[in-house]
Amino acid sequence: MNARSKIIWLLIFIITAFSCKKVIDIHLDNTEPKLVIEGVVSNNSEQTFVRITKSVNFSEDNKFPEVKNAFVVLKDSSRSFSDTLYETTNSDGLLIYKPHRFRGVIGHIYQLFVRVDGQQYHAQSQMPDSVTFKGLKLYANENVSDTSLTFTVVPQFTDQKGIANYYRFIQYINHKKDDGINVLNDNVGDGLPNERPIFTNTIDIKLGDTVAVKMLNIDKNVYQYFYELEQNQNQMGVTPSNPVSNISNGALGYFSAQYEQTTAAIISENDK
Amino acid sequence: MQKTALLIFFLAAFNIVTFSQKLFSINGKLRDGESGETIIAATISVSGRKTASAISNDYGFYSLSLPAGKYTLKVSCIGYKPFNQPIFLSKDTLINLSLEQATDKGILNTVIVNATKKNDIGNPETGFTHLDLKEIATVPVIFGEADILKTLQLLPGVKSAGDGSAGFFVRGGTAGQNLILLDEAPVYNATHLFGFFSVFNSDAIKDVTFMKGNSPAQYGGRLASVVDVKMKDGNDQKTEVSGGIGLISSRVSVDGPIQKNKSSFLVTARRTYADLFLKLSNNKDINGNQLYFYDINLKANYQLNNKSQLFASGYFGKDKLGLGNQFGIDWGNQTGTLRWNYIASPKLFSNTSLIYSNYKYNILLTNDKTVFHIQSSIKDINLKQDFEWHSNNKSIWHFGVNTIYHGIAPTRFIGGNDSDNYTQEKETRFGWENALYTNNTTQINSLINIDYGLRVSAYSLLGQGNYNIYQNGQETGMVSLSQGQMGKTYFNIEPRFSSSFLLNKNNSLKFAYARNTQNLHLLSNSASTNPTDQWIGDSYNIKPEIADQISIGIYKDLQNHHYELSVETYYKWMQNQIDYKDGANLSTSTDVESQLLFGKGRAFGIEFYLKKKQGRLTGWLSYTLSRTERKINGINNNQWYDATQDQTHNLALVGIYKLSNNWSLSSNFVFYTGNAVSFPSGKYSIDNETVFYYTQRNGYRMPDYHRLDLSATYTRKKRKGFESSWVFSLFNVYGRENAYAIKFQDDPNDPSKTQVVQTSLFRWVPSITYNFKF
């Protein structure tokens, strides 16, 4: 439960009468471009890919250089199967590396090898067991600024007892992805039905909207990576830092073998 | 160190053998003739004997030793008329005295931060300040409430944590390294409303002593500072009512005799009512919100006889914020003190206290039928025995013992619904803290004063509980303690020494060294004080924090007491400092100790303080140049980095101008370097969203903070015992947008760009308060 950020929001609400926001200029140092690797092995083979980009300075545009001509290999070490990935573009027009034939299986350990500009990078991830994603429960928030209602999603699933489970959620509102990062573990409520909500960051969920939620069962390292990203995103109080990556040799990014399921709902009067 | 020990021994021996003539003691308590309040820090002397003088202690007790003879007993104290009484001394004599208050004009000429004897240039204590409550009331603050913690932040060496935080940093210490005592009871969270108010209602406060790391041995348990707040005893002559009505809060105070000259009581209460304005809204979503705090101070005392007095005091405070029925947070302190003062002999004063302190917070989240709480608490029971022995006119010994039983419930998740229970099982930790101390203040000759002492502290882990042991973040073992079983005990020896050398009538030089240790630690990874910051005791991983501080200062009295100038420098070494890991999980991790990292710190600086004490215009200028760094294993590649609370420059200017008998104007201006923070240097894309790349811990600065406040006070003449005043104040006169938070994000209008957004609070906050007393 992201209580801290809720407290902060409450605080912000309290002082709304006094506070003001403005865009400012701050001098930030330049940095060397850093290699960023995102690798996903999914039960959905369409979603298995590797993307390699570079970081840019804060003041630059959000155009992250794509790294071509990398040598990328995915290996299923549980059954000694390797695949060398090929360059292609995805539906958004982004450069990605795709396997020829590769589907994630629960319990298997996957390895990623990347070679770029003479540097080698390596990562490993085990696909966790799946937890059945039963659906969405919604509850209406009383909005503080006006009388309109917004909704918050409580994903419905029952955690596995005695096993450390880690979850990540991605929300699509009217087919548009919200950039809010939401991860849960079972430090609280091990083996129990989930009652914890997930939050959107930029898009409000309103009456009549279609909400799709993708639930990912992830491993512990990937959970920690996204937990830290979530903390950074809230940017309140906590001292931000680079999340710990499971990729070697100082690359940014993550490699995750994950089990994904999606459910969707249309927000109706009944959800009030 | 050995040399110092030798010196201490020599001085102590010297002390005992110097007087052989038969001496008698005059002793007793000093009181205010009008209210019966005991008077702290008055000077008691006799005519004809320059060297014979004493200063009344925190409970008004004094003791003066003289050969038999005829004398005129003289008492002087700022704010009171001088007192003279002929006496004939032929045996030990108990004289309880009442002083008459000086007229208004006399009070007008008092100093700002009261330089009574305690802050005199000849006094050995360094980094020591006595705050005058009358003067605190004239310093402008937000929402128009006099606030001792806000005023402290205008002194050199003390840094504010920023708008929206009553947290403060002393000489490079963190907010959790300040010992805040209310009638000897530790207050674990001294803030209301996320820090916009402090928990101290000035109406209930009699005296505040502030020590920056070189406190005498009777104080201990925190590294950076001691704020010793004493509540009023209550008027034992007549019943008084006073209060104030402000825009967002009001307060009332009633005190009076229970039995005249024998016993009295004090009740003060305060409440904010911002939520009453919310109620005015037609929107049920707004008027359903809660937002208030209240606090109540209670005190009663009873004089058993001439030598013995009993006190009971208590504080209860609570904050409550609620967002509809879905989300709420409340937190509060409760403290209670039972105290027995006893004049055991003409030279021996005893103070016995039984103290209770409790702090807890509770976050409530409801969602349909499920109710969650996140909670944490700390509870103490504390027994203190202090003796003050006036061995002769030039030497006062303090010795005593202090034992505290702590129970700390770590932050945990509680709750569920009809079918499921989500409560996290986390053990309450128990600890037993003990201290033995002795301290002596001696006037060696007319030029040299010293204060030296030793405090031995111990902290024992107590069962029942399982303590995990971590090595480099990995669990390597566990110690199980059964109910009442004692685990590891940490011992520390804390020497304290301070001295002053009078160079001439108007100049003195001071030197001080102190070691302080801290067994309770405030886990906080944000710059501002947050009610959800949690306390934790020593464990097998967490060792006592240790600080060694040396300070050297020069003190000057200028233009015949009109001005006072001091320059102090300090250097402080800190061991076993605690920080969170990068990306630590604070609220739901099964053992928060697994999220901690340890290292050391260092702080140094120079503090300038110029004070104008007399005339129509009074006030002070304080400036601090300092540096605070940390080196924590696992942060910033184990390199030194600027601590969050490092503020290079810190300047405060306070002026109070008495315009006429009715009007007085006051203002303050502050400027300080922004806190050290971690900003991103680059950015990259994860999952097609922009995320930020950080190069080092605290490598950047928040923008500089500066602000000017003004206030005007109109006091109506006292009529038939009714006094009243109006206080008009304007906070942040020129509307400086000081940064509260800085956020990095994609530009909502142009997703191809990122932007930096600054949130600031409080531009031009006006307030009006009406105060009355009858």
Rg from Cα of chain A:
20 Å
- Determine the structural class of chain A based on helices, strands and strand pairing: mainly beta
What is the CA-atom radius of gyration of chain B, in angstroms? 27 Å
**DSSP E strands of chain A, number:** 17
| Structural class by helix and strand composition of chain B | mainly beta
Q: Helical element count of chain A?
A: 2
- Helix percentage of chain B: under 10%
Proportion in β-strands of chain A = 35-45%
Return residue spans of chain A where pLDDT drops below 50 for at least 5 consecutive residues: 1-8
Q: Main sheet of chain B?
A: 22 strands, antiparallel, barrel
Task: Report a brief summary of the structure.
The complex is a heterodimer of chains A (272) and B (774). Chain A has helices spanning 3-14, 220-234; strands spanning 20-24, 35-42, 49-54, 56-57, 71-76, 81-84, 86-89, 95-98, 109-116, 119-126, 135-142, 149-156, 166-173, 176-177, 182-185, 210-218, 252-266.
Describe this structure in words.
The complex is a heterodimer of chains A (272) and B (774). Helices cover 10% and strands 40% of the residues of chain A. In chain A, strand 13 and strand 14 (176-177) form a beta hairpin. Chain A is built from 2 helices and 17 strands. With 272 residues, chain A is mainly beta. In chain A, the strands form 4 sheets. In chain A, strands 2, 3, 13, 14, 15, 16 and 17 form a 7-stranded mixed sheet that branches. In chain A, strands 6-5-9-10 form a 4-stranded antiparallel sheet, with no helix packed on it. In chain A, strands 7-8 form a two-stranded antiparallel ribbon. Chain B has 774 residues and is mainly β. In chain B, the strands form 11 sheets. Chain B has a 22-stranded antiparallel barrel. A 5-stranded mixed sheet of chain B has the order 9-16-17-12-13. In chain B, strands 1, 4, 7 and 8 form a 4-stranded mixed sheet that branches. Residues 9-19 and 105-119 of chain B have low confidence and may be disordered. Chains A and B meet through helix 1, strand 1, strand 4, strand 11 and helix 2 of A and helix 6, strand 24, strand 25, strand 43 and strand 44 of B. Strand 4 of chain A pairs antiparallel with strand 43 of chain B.
